[in-house]
Design brief:
By secondary structure, the chain is an alpha+beta fold. The chain folds into two domains: about 1-60, Winged helix-like DNA-binding domain superfamily/Winged helix DNA-binding domain (Arc Repressor Mutant, subunit A, Orthogonal Bundle), CATH 1.10.10; about 65-240, Beta-Lactamase, CATH 3.30.450. About 50% of the residues lie in helices and about 20% in strands.
């Protein structure tokens, strides 16, 4: 039982504000020596409850999967599926449902389109949260501090300042129009997409819906049409998960 308690303390150390921690921070949070904390983390890594990113640690993909079960994301994913299929038929496109995990997006649902594109969004794939429309749709609805925390990653810091500025400008544009539009990604050549976030009851983005098209087809008019359709689906899903208001007396 003592070992279980130590594991709980280690996992509890990861927060929205601090999604990635050093070994020293993990050991301090759990009251363990660095060598003991490392042994626990290595064991948790084997079952994907944590994972290493350079010299830092973060929660692993199994935690995300368990969270989807506990918090209803799995239901949300299933409820989104017919809408995504409908959008795929309407726009002759691939569609995807993804969830944020630290500085990455995990694609947990995917429907192919008629063309050979969108391979970056294959089921179970990981992508940098800044790398495409889905992740940027999540970032555009986060607070400044939370956005900074998600972008506090080696991959982001390694980007040229011009590229980082372009990404942040796209996030700003997304906040204005309600969707993010990636015509020809620097990170996924030959991929274009439009995405919107799905918000929980507190306005926190918990997932993203995306339509994936060849960049040659994705002009501004089509992007706006797709974005409007996606926003309608997101609102419907959000309203379905909102608690019923008490009846007026």
């Amino acid at each position: 039982m003592q070992a279980v308690g130590r594991v709980a303390l280690l996992l509890d150390a990861f927060t929205v504000e601090r999604p990635e921690l050093t070994l020293g921070e993990c050991s301090a949070a759990a009251g363990l020596s660095k060598s003991s904390a490392h042994r626990f983390l290595a064991s948790l890594e084997e079952v994907q409850l944590v994972e290493r990113v350079g010299t830092r640690w973060r929660l692993g993909p199994r935690v995300v999967w368990l969270a989807t079960v506990r918090l209803g994301h799995l239901d949300l994913r299933h409820e989104a599926a017919p809408h995504l299929r409908g959008l795929g038929r309407r726009f002759h496109a691939a569609t995807a449902f993804s969830i944020p995990n630290g500085s990455e997006m995990i694609y947990v649902e995917r429907f192919d389109g008629p063309g050979a594109f969108g391979v970056n969004a294959r089921l179970g794939a990981l992508a940098p949260i800044w790398g495409g429309a889905s992740g940027r749709a999540i970032l555009m609805r986060l607070s400044e501090s939370e956005r900074a925390a998600r972008l506090d990653a080696d991959g982001w810091r390694a980007l040229d300042e011009t590229v980082r500025r372009e990404v942040l400008d796209e996030i700003d544009r997304g906040m204005d129009v309600g969707y993010c539009h990636e015509r020809n990604s620097r990170f996924f050549p030959g991929i274009g997409g439009v995405a919107v976030p799905i918000l929980d009851l507190h306005g926190v983005p918990v997932a993203a819906l995306s339509v994936i098209l060849p960049p040659t087809e994705l002009n501004d008019d089509l992007a706006d049409e797709v974005g409007t359709a996606l926003r309608g689906v997101a609102r419907e899903l959000e309203e379905h998960h909102a608690p019923a208001r008490p009846a007026a007396h």
